[in-house]
């Protein structure tokens, strides 16, 4: 209902309230699906700045009306999901994320286009979305994809985000997929090596061989520092201070092949940039490896630490190295990122490290993130406290009752 104290201006749909603030309030049209009137009201421009004049308010109202009619033209009204994805969402997404992230989502886009491509954007129904969700989570035996829950969650999440963009661009009034329950990632249990398993693994490596020496250095560094895989592959020798015993983690490597890569001057998150303290064993191992690299002309400040020919190592190679030595040591095979979890387990179980210290060392944005991933590893960490508690409180009770009890007769007996 219109405020009685507001006054009109020379611009239709633009008003000024009793405090002298300008705003617009206007009908844009009627939704062709619901039949409801579409009303818009606002006090700020596209940059979130309050209007200082009726002219500014009218300028924003005119812009919004033009945008609305452009989006709701007959052509856009019939736009299919595939047209929207290929002309709007995918080009936008490609400019908004890392090249590696976009590449990792291309398969998800193909699934979405195959499923919804021919359906007009405005005709996607709750039933379509629910059936898609069920299909993603079903086994192949039951006519589904057979995907893991985490992968099904990723694809469904991409779908929801694409429709969010459609709403933001005013192609849709609301995101129909949000009427259906999201798919949770589920609990991803990432296998890791205990200290004893790690010792078995490195006992299988012959460092007399140059390439095996590199394998040893990589496994050791990942296990003893907890750095992310692409943070390790990006390390130059100038990232290590061998005298102050510090490792600078400020880069990550985006790599497709050994000859097609990019070294970014940032890590996965802003808080990922960090300095890690190194133990003496790690320092000695690095010194020996640098000396070994120097025999073939490597080991200079801007050379990769993890390299046997001047080129960086790639993730799949590290996975093969882990697999090879795990088999020789007769321990479980883990993923490359499992070495990061192994480091967290090692610090918690061997040294009962605090959440704050582990969070800083791992490059997490907050201790809450650390707890989310590693809280289960602290189970049993309070055993020492329980032992100290034993006998700490003197147990001495009264010789006879000092209260008069008038309660339940059966209890008195």
TrEMBL record:
It comes from the Bacteria. One of its GO terms (biological process) is DNA recombination. GO terms for molecular function: DNA binding. Residues 188-388 form the Tyr recombinase domain. Pfam families: Phage_int_SAM_5, Phage_integrase. Keywords: DNA recombination, DNA-binding. InterPro entries: DNA_brk_join_enz, Integrase-like_cat_sf, Integrase_catalytic, Integrase_recombinase_N, SAM-like_dom, Tyrosine_recombinase_XerCD. Belongs to the 'phage' integrase family. This is Integrase family protein. The lineage of its organism: Bacteria, Bacillati, Bacillota, Clostridia, Eubacteriales.
């Amino acid at each position: 209902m219109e405020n009685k104290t507001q006054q009109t201006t020379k611009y239709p749909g633009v008003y000024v309230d009793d405090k002298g603030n300008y705003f617009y309030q206007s009908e844009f049209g009627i939704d062709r699906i619901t039949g409801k009137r579409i009303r818009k009201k606002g006090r700020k421009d596209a940059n979130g700045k309050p209007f200082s004049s009726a002219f500014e308010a009218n300028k924003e109202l005119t812009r919004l009306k033009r945008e609305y009619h452009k989006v709701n033209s007959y052509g856009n009204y019939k736009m299919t999901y595939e047209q929207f994805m290929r002309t709007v969402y995918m080009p936008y997404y490609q400019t908004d994320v890392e090249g590696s992230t976009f590449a990792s989502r291309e398969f998800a886009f193909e699934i979405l286009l195959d499923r919804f491509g021919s359906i007009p954007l405005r005709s996607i129904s709750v039933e379509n979305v629910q059936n898609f969700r069920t299909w993603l989570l079903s086994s192949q035996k039951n006519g589904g994809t057979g995907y893991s829950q985490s992968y099904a969650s990723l694809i469904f999440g991409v779908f929801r985000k694409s429709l969010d963009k459609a709403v933001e661009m005013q192609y849709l009034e609301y995101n129909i997929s949000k009427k259906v329950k999201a798919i949770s990632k589920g609990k991803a249990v990432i296998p890791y090596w205990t200290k004893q398993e790690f010792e078995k693994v490195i006992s299988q490596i012959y460092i007399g061989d140059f390439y095996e020496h590199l394998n040893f250095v990589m496994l050791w560094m990942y296990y003893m520092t907890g750095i992310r895989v692409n943070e390790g592959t990006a390390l130059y020798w100038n990232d290590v201070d061998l005298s102050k015993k510090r490792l600078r983690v400020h880069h990550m490597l985006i790599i497709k092949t050994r000859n097609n890569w990019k070294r970014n001057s940032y890590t996965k998150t802003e808080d990922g940039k960090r300095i890690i303290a190194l133990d003496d064993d790690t320092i000695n191992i690095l010194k020996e490896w640098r000396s070994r690299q120097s025999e073939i002309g490597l080991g200079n400040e801007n050379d990769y630490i993890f390299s046997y020919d001047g080129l960086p190592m790639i993730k799949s190679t590290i996975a093969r190295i882990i697999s090879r030595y795990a088999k020789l040591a007769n321990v479980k095979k883990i993923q490359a990122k499992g070495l990061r979890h192994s480091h967290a387990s090692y610090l918690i179980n061997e040294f009962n490290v605090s959440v704050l210290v582990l969070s800083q060392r791992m490059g997490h944005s907050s201790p809450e993130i650390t707890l989310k991933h590693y809280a289960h590893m602290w189970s049993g960490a309070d055993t020492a406290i329980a032992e100290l508690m034993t006998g700490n409180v003197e147990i001495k009770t009264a010789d006879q009752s000092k209260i008069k009890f008038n309660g339940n007769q059966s209890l008195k007996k």
